[in-house]
Amino acid sequence: MIGSKSGSTIETASQKSFFEHLLVENQLNPADHIVIVTDPGSPLHNDAKDKGYRVITADPNVGGRFSALSAFGLVPAALIGVDVSELLDDALVASEQFCLEGSLAISIAAVLFESGNQFISFCEENNPNPGLSDWIEQLIAESTGKNQTGRLPIVTQSLSEQQFGTTISFSPGDFDLVVEASLGAQFILWEWVTALLCYALEVDPFNQPNVTEAKEQTNNVLKLKQSYIHLSEIKQFEDSEFILYSNRKINSIADFFKVQMEYVALMAYLTRGVDDSVISLRNLISEKINKPTTFGWGPRFLHSTGQFHKGGQPNGGFVQITSEPILDFAIAGTDYTFNELITAQAIGDGIALRKRDYPFLQIHLKNRKSGIEKLRKIITEL
To answer: Which keywords appear in this protein's UniProt record, sorted alphabetically (predicted)?
Structure first.
């Protein structure tokens, strides 16, 4: 299943091209194996109709990150055997209470606004819907992080990890808020909370101007065929394990964390499911410097906290982790590979951050496994 609201998202288009080519190479008809979900009239919709694909159009009036209960969320859920009628029924029952006195949605939005704290900690420990916090992270960060204001979710895995700002859990514990509900009810609740919070913050919940900016930077890097070698002017240090690039004069990773910042965003352009040991650096950094620290896989976070990084409060420090690819594949119909695309996205986002003169550090690993272990050792000794 291929889903894209705009029908022009570069990651989606690239994967679609790759698998179409793979199917044809194996004498299979892509139309027999691909289902498209997109907005009516999008470039993806028009292309799919021309190729005879099965197309399910979504409601164009529902914003992308608010579309968990639209075709974008319901089609893949149904395909893996979820009873989507139960999701919708639970969401409907919950939503009927949101405009009544004592509304849970209004109450949560008010707490998040009136706290005045830009950080919200979501704890995943014992969450009956694992991964829900990652979805809420995108919903809140990308919706509120504009006009140099917003709320930044910090996703933690256990109560033993340091919590910042308003603390929220989905099972009983020592938190500011505990929100227990079915998955369908959680979806509609947090969509309402986010929209109401944006109203209080006086920002548009449905746009993402700085995501578009990052896309434009990526396209420019691809056009110019730039690679990490073009970052030589900000190269600060190199040894057998990694190269450090930064817009601050530093001699070590420890030097970077002495720079003034209110939070750290750790952005890993590595392989999820292979390089997962890098995730532990988030809590380690947070404990050592006593600052809220987020973790995001690149390029996924560009469509999530990436908007907040550039549009929210201008007080973050940004640590990008990159490496050479383990595998690489050409993208049919383009003159670049998947690695070249991801490299362009990392470089493009770095350009956008440095243009604002935000503290930026890129750690380019020469060997992923030993490089991550060395990073753990360095941060442990901070």
So the answer is: Gluconeogenesis, Glycolysis, Isomerase
Mean pLDDT of each 10-residue bin along the chain, 382 residues long: 94 97 98 97 96 97 96 97 97 96 96 97 97 98 97 96 97 96 98 98 94 88 91 96 97 97 98 97 98 98 96 98 94 96 96 97 97 97 95
**Structure-token pair, residue 306:** 């990436």
In the chain, CATH 3.40.50.10490 covers: 209-380
List Cα–Cα distances, 353 to 98, 317, 346, in angstroms: 38, 10, 11
> And the tokens for 377?
């050792």
343-371 b/e (C-beta count within 10 Å ≥ 16 → b) = bbbbbbbbbbbbeeebbbbbbbbeebeeb
Q: What pairing do the DSSP bridges indicate for beta strands 242-246 and 360-365?
A: antiparallel
- What is the rounded CA–CA span in Å between residue 363 and residue 375? 9
Distance, CA of 61 to CA of 82 (rounded, Å): 25
Residue 63 is encoded by which pair of tokens? 């914003």
Alpha-carbon separation of residue 107 from 69, 179, 378 (angstroms) = 22, 12, 43
Query: Position 350: which residue type?
Result: G
Chain Cα centroid distance, residue 365? 22
How would DSSP label each residue in 27-65?
T--GGGT-EEEE-TTSHHHHHHHHHT-EEEE--TTS-GG
What distance, in Å, lies between the first and last C-alpha atoms of the chain? Answer: 45
Domain 209-380, classified CATH 3.40.50.620, yes or no: no
Residue 100 CB contacts under 8 Å (≥ 6 apart), including other chains: none
Strand ranges of the sheet holding 177-178, from the earlier edge strand across to the other edge: 152-156, 119-123, 166-169, 177-178
- Structure-token pair, residue 126: 């014992």
pTM greater than the 0.85 cutoff: yes
